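Example: Cytokinin riboside 5'-monophosphate phosphoribohydrolase.
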Amino acid sequence: MGIPEGVAKPEEQRLGPVLRRRDQVQPGTTDQRLLDTEGDSEWVHTDPWRVMRIQSEFVEGFGALAELPSAISVFGSARTKPDSPEYEAGVRIGRALVEAGFAVITGGGPGAMEAANKGAREAKGVSVGLGIELPFEQGLNQHVDIGVNFRYFFVRKTMFVKYAQGFVVLPGGLGTLDELFEALTLVQTRKVTRFPIVLFGTEYWKGLVDWLRDSVVAGGKASERDLLLFHVTDDVDEAVALVTKETGK
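Written out as structure tokens, the predicted fold is:
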């Protein structure tokens, strides 16, 4: 539907909160476009529609996790092999966190994430998986009791932080580093408070810690106290004790 024949095109048009003038005036009204059954379906790929999808993901995530007890997010590589020491460490960490009174949140995938979920499930705790839509994603692992799948990384990362009292980070790749530095930035800028971050595996994380100290801090890009934002350990009991102590649990 457009402007009726013989009626001049208006110079100004108000569409809700949006003002359009001159050449930017659109034919018809918002209701006409809503109720018109003709036309293609490209509108579902427009930015305004994406905003609605983003909003719906926040609503679904908040609704699913609102009653979650105190929790710790555990990160690590999806490529960790089930027969590896890292996988076994993930199982022990998941189990120990439940025994300390926490629910366990992971990315819901295989590898280290599966290990932590498995440990939580074996300890009869709450095992949560927050998945992400990826071309190569395998879906949520079998040890997840509460699972939510997301389209958008930034919505998913909000859930990791909002519903957790701390992070335990197992050896991982770019995704794990993304989640780690997101948390470090939030703590450094005081967007979140009392948020312990534990890196598990001293040998694996040594190069990163050395680079932060010898390049980032030494170069004046961060302060010495920023190195206190995280702890590094090889001991499961110490990792759990650190998050327990800092969360006041």
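The two ends are 62 Å apart (CA to CA).
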